[in-house]
Design goal:
The chain has four helices and five strands. It is α+β, with helices and mostly antiparallel strands and 127 residues long.
């Protein structure tokens, strides 16, 4: 049976510790809690999307900025335990949906943070 993930916007501080933990597992230079807090203060520009399991566990997240006419993907990361199960793809497909809904159908990716796995998941999402 295929798994499903709810993709929901993060709008309050309650989930930030989990995002920091996923970041620490995923990046050499992870974002801090303070950096995520700054994102929450800019809802007109910054989208933080979480992939949530049916049990309410945050399995991964994606940070996206709306920049004039396009969406910039800052980072996408999945908890080690949930990798390889379609979470990253589900997050990026939601970014594509967001682009369609907001009329921003072009995407950029912060190059310095994209590693091999990022490129693969991005191409799987047809971005
Ligand atoms: C990259 C990452 C987000 C992928 O998340 P995931 O949930 O494991 O990916 P999915 O299960 O949705 O896989 C989607 C596709 O990407 C491919 N893929 C996933 N991780 C990969 C990796 N490390 N290397 C190569 N391909 C990878 C999968 O094979 C799949 O392709 P397919 O549909 O053709 O089989 C996750 O490995 C991660 O958090 N990595 C550390 C952080 C990172 O590098 N983020 C990207 C840069 S910001």
């Amino acid at each position: 049976m295929s798994e499903s993930w709810d993709i929901v916007p993060i709008v309050d501080e309650g989930s930030l510790d989990v995002l920091v933990e996923i970041n620490n597992q995923s990046f050499t230079h992870p974002w801090t809690r303070g950096m995520f807090l700054e994102e929450l203060k800019q809802p007109e520009k910054s989208y933080l999307l979480a992939a949530v399991t049916t049990n309410g566990v945050i399995a991964g997240y994606c940070s996206v900025w709306s920049i004039v006419d396009h969406l910039q993907i800052n980072s996408v990361a999945v908890c080690l335990k949930y990798r390889g199960r379609g979470v990253g793809l589900a997050l990026l497909n939601t970014v594509v949906d967001l682009g369609g809904a907001t009329g921003r159908r072009e995407y950029s990716i912060r190059g310095a943070e994209i590693e091999c796995g990022g490129q693969s998941v991005v191409s799987a999402a047809s971005i």
